[in-house]
């Protein structure tokens, strides 16, 4: 069996396990009420204000673990539970997403680079799977479609790895601020840190999975050249 194929399977299993663990952690820490009694919305607005950011709105978005910062319309989108919740998990998520807003406001280089890649990735993602599929089928006749497909997939893999410092930095900013501002107690801080650690691991596994998939398709090209 192709080694890259084995790695893909392993990363898929690891991703599933980490997602399960992440959900378990957030459910557990969502039951721990903050002594500061601040909701996710209040924490987000306070962190933005402390960093002099006045043009970003904090809004509620449907779903679970759907929290994100949208630089296009400058909104911190908190899932319904995080938006209203007053727990260690909510504090971690709200502050993390505001960490991205701070990155945007301070022109954090990694975030700028990742944002610049988004339009290109949005364009290629529509036909990249077709190129890869046809490339494998047509490989005996011509390597061109698969070569182009692998090149485009390499961009998505690069995006996955560029995302890592962006996520790690947002968590670092979040944890430092909630500690400095007295949002959490030492025990609550440990819970928030643990929750964000597991969230970060999902990005690590996603990046490794993308790399494994890239190597899987690249192995077809390398095999053809050896032939």
From TrEMBL:
Source superkingdom: Bacteria
InterPro entries, alphabetized: Zn_peptidase_2 (IPR007395)
Protein name: Zinc metallopeptidase
Pfam families: Zn_peptidase_2 (PF04298)
Entry's transmembrane regions: 118-138, 144-164, 198-218
Record flagged with keyword Oxidoreductase: no
Keyword annotations from UniProtKB, A to Z: Membrane, Transmembrane, Transmembrane helix
The species this protein was found in: Hymenobacter wooponensis
């Amino acid at each position: 069996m192709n080694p890259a194929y084995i790695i893909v399977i392993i990363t898929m299993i690891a991703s599933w396990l980490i997602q399960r663990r992440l959900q378990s952690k957030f459910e557990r820490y969502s039951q721990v009420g903050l002594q500061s009694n601040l909701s996710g919305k209040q924490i987000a607005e306070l962190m933005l204000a402390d960093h002099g950011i006045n043009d970003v709105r904090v809004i509620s978005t449907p779903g679970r673990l759907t929290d994100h910062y949208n630089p296009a319309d400058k909104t911190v989108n908190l899932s319904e539970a995080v938006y209203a919740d007053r727990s260690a998990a909510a504090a971690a998520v709200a502050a993390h997403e505001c960490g991205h807003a701070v990155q945007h406001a301070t022109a954090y280089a990694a975030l700028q680079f990742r944002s610049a890649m988004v339009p290109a990735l949005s364009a290629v993602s529509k036909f990249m799977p077709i190129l890869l599929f046809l490339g494998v089928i047509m490989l005996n006749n011509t390597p061109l479609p698969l070569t182009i497909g692998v090149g485009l997939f390499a961009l998505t893999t690069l995006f996955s790895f560029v995302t890592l410092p962006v996520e790690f930095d947002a968590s670092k900013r979040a944890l430092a601020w909630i500690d400095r501002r007295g949002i959490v107690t030492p025990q609550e801080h440990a819970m928030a840190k643990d929750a964000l650690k597991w969230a970060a691991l999902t990005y690590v596994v996603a990046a490794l999975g993308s790399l494994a998939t890239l190597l899987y398709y690249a192995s077809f090209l390398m095999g053809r050249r050896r032939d």
